[in-house]
Amino acid sequence: xxxxxxxxxxxxxxxxxxxxxxxxxxxxxxxxxxxxxxxxxxxxxxxxxxxxxxxxxxxxxxxxxxxxxxxxxxxxxxxxxxxxxxxxxxxxxxxxxxxxxxxxxxxxxxxxxxxxxxxxxxxxxxxxxxxxxxxxxxxxxxxxxxxxxxxxxxxxxxxxxxxxxxxxxxxxxxxxxxxxxxxxxxxxxxxxxxxxxxxxxxxxxxxxxxxxxxxxxxxxxxxxxxxxxxxxxxxxxxxxx
Length: 241
Hints:
This protein is mainly β. The protein has one helix at about 220-225; strands at about 1-5, 20-25, 55-60, 65-75, 80-85, 85-90, 90-95, 95-105, 120-125, 130-140, 145-150, 160-165, 170-175, 195, 200-210. A hairpin with a 6-residue loop joins strand 3 and strand 4 (about 65-75).
């Protein structure tokens, strides 16, 4: 297993900035990215297994020496498209239902970032400030249901021509659909394109710690005042909605 922390909002509202996760390495096999410092220098994968649609995975960036976390949408042989923000998989629209606005607590590490020209919408609930996002419940065929955010209409991420996922690659997306440079974008656009399976590090299992960003290393008591205790224990198995 390996710990991993969330530095960005691309997976909101499933994963918050400041979440600390346990990532299981065994589900997909092992490559050189599974081990510290890339040692032993494996050329491929051993004990390799394919992810399932809906898995939340950590993988090495195809072009940079950083790790990313996204949701698996398309497997090798799948045809993936996005039409006006709606996901289409193998020619069929993925089930999607509109939800009430998603409330994300505003904090030091989550200052209500929106993608222009989306309006910044906030609300106070019991004295606490929340950022409001348009949200949908999306259900993959044979996979889990989860919440996705849709901040703007007709945004650059809202349309993607039907494309078949090549052998040995995955199509991944962030749940914060308008704020995720994922497989919908190529390297020239700042994205990652289709992710080689041998770059997988593991599957996200559970949140073991979460901080709102207000803590200071020099003030140990703030480690606990900044704690988002309600997020500890959140599980991300494909069997958990």
